[in-house]
Amino acid sequence: MARTPGNKILRDNAGVTKAAVAYGNANKIVTTRTVKVEGWEHEIPEVEGVFRALVMMQAEEMDKSKELLWNMATETNVRRRGELRRHYNSVQRNIVRNDEVLNALVGKKIGLPMTEEKKPKAAKPKAAKPKAAKAPKKEPAKKRPSPKEVKKAADKRRTTSNPNSRRAKFEKMSFAEVQQAAKKRGFKAHGSKESIINRILNG
Q1: pLDDT of the residue at 191
Q2: How far is CA 78 from the centre of its chain?
Q3: Given this model, what pLDDT does residue 3 score?
Q4: How many CA atoms lie within 13 A of 128 on its CB side?
Q5: pLDDT in tens, 169-201
Q6: Stated pTM of the model
Q7: How many CB atoms lie within 10 A of CB 46?
Q8: Are the C-beta atoms of residues 22 and 121 closer than 8 Å to each other?
């Protein structure tokens, strides 16, 4: 027999192994494997398969034990209660025997998932580097217009105003006509044409 961890445990506990193999055959669990020894084929217990079958068999034994215990507690017939007790004790012995084998197999790391050392470590995803925030573009400071530029812009707006407006009418007049219009309205007629028009319109 190949030197596989757990083989000796199965050999030393032939009764439990035989029961687990029979349970596995009945429940479609592979519990044996074929090996060649000196040209002859031999069927031997397969450790992992026996372990799986034994775990399932043990779970069923425990369920059976609970059911027997409940029936024993509620049974009033003395004879029937004695039968249940004997059956319960037999199941308990099986559970203890199975537990010893299961614990021994677990001690050999049979039936356990891959250990942490053997597990391939998943590559940690690289954290995306935060993009450097772009500094906002500085807009060139707007040059503050001089008083002359302000006056020029105002004059331009006035000249492009509605030709039918009062200002447009005054601007079409000659300087003398504007002075005369100012005097008629009781305004002073000295200064430039523009200042006289402003005096009339703002008066």
Answers
A1: 81
A2: 61
A3: 62
A4: 3
A5: 888 888 888 888 888 888 888 888 888 888 888
A6: 0.51
A7: 22
A8: no
- Backbone torsions φ then ψ of 79, nearest 5 degrees: -65, -45
Q: Which two tokens stand for residue 171?
A: 């601007």
Helix H or strand E segment including 148: helix 147-159
3-state secondary structure of 102: helix
155: tokens are 């004059």
Q: Are 126 and 31 in contact (CB under 8 A)?
A: no
In Å, what is the CA distance from 191 to each residue of 100, 139, 158, 184, 186?
123, 42, 19, 16, 15
Q: What is the dihedral of CA 56, 58, 63, 68, to 10 degrees?
A: 150
What is the distance in angstroms between the CA of the first residue and the CA of the last residue of the chain? 125
Rounded distance, CA 46 to CA 23, Å? 14
- Contact indicator for 20, 31 with CB cutoff of 8 Å: yes
Q: What is the DSSP letter of 189?
A: -
